[in-house]
Amino acid sequence: MRDTYETPFNSRYASKEMQYLFSPDKKFKTWRKLWIALAESEKELGLDITDEQIEDLKKYAEDINYEVAAAREKEVRHDVMSHVYAYGQQAVKAKPIIHLGATSCYVGDNTDLIIMYEALELIRVKLVNVMAQLARFAEEYKDLPTLGFTHYQPAQLTTVGKRATLWLEELWMDYGELTHILETRRLRGAKGTTGTQASFMELFDQDGDKVKALDQLVARKMGYTDTYPVTGQTYPRKFDTMCLNVLSLIAQSCYKFANDLRLLQNLKEMEEPFEKSQIGSSAMAYKRNPMRSERICSLARLVLANVMNPAITASTQWFERTLDDSANKRVSVSESFLAVDGILQVMLNVTEGMVVYPKVIHAHVMAELPFMATEMIIMEEVKLGGDRQELHEHIRVHSMEAARQVKQEGKPNDLIERVEADPFFKMDKAQLENALRPENFIGRAPQQVEDFLNECIRPILEQNQDILGMHASLSV
User: Fold this and answer.
1) Is the dihedral of CA 252, 253, 258, 261 positive or negative?
2) What is the mean pLDDT of residues 144-170?
């Protein structure tokens, strides 16, 4: 339909896998799995539910009669009861026991948690693959000297690979936070209308042990070992904040990487992939705009802004629950996941095909290195018998004049030629050239790369070998 709003996440950004996780089909099929788990658990704990009724529920678990549910919702204005009704129209034998003792949040909230955990798993897979590609890049370029920048002004040298570890370290930190949530996953369970399990106590004749067992049994049938120890009507809405905080962390890291790459592309030191037929500008045919990196930044901005929504929702829930969490949550949570999925799709594409221009990088290094080498020249001259204070004054004068020529006259940096021509200095041409070797100015950068990869990244990649090798192409 071209006359109805469609989210660009579907047509442009998010993967089919992530789109499905937040689809109606995923939600309502999970509802039915939860109803089956509840009925099975209640039967096993002694309620009068038959095997025939369970089989009837399972028969229609994947065959949802959406039209019946939609028509019923128009009458009763309640989505869960509409689907209970629709399920009962199919599984006629099980109709009396569907949703027995449960509140709407039994299916709604447990399903939301399941979807978010599965979405985090998908994010984790893509994040690990991005980390693997950045690790390979860092390893390949660990020895290539490049200008470091502070305040976007030339500073001491680093290496291209060392800079990549700064991007990678932030993703590594994000991975730790994401992993913590997945390792402590839990469902809401079967807690009843206000979390007291009163309805289940009634069903089980006030047998608290059986009601407690029901909560755990339902979770295990859904593949989980834990539930929240206490709840109101909903699971703690703070969990949504925790999820979106992690997504925001990933978005921040990707934003930083993409911003840096955009600056490097302006310097012509590095580029994101640029396809043979790609058009950079409708007016300027020569342009190679960093559209992929710009897309990362643009989507990341949405996630950074979205993170406030669940924080406000969690803060303003009244007592056991209010429904003002619902409409906002449907949008802010799902679209943050879809956006980060889209961000990581682009990150996979970019990090796999980044282009480095060593000659441009070297030219930029050599344009600034004479200034950085002045302290080393002074120290070498002192070894040859020079006076440090006098040396400092001579090289200061030469530095000022060389800088003036660079800035005011657009000439190359001729500081070393000035030092070489000044009889006050004893170093010969060979010694001066040796002092200007870029690798003399990168400190432990290559070793830092290796240490970081060995100690922090490779253990993660080894643990996740079965999910490595992912590639991503962009639809537009």
Assistant:
1) positive
2) 96
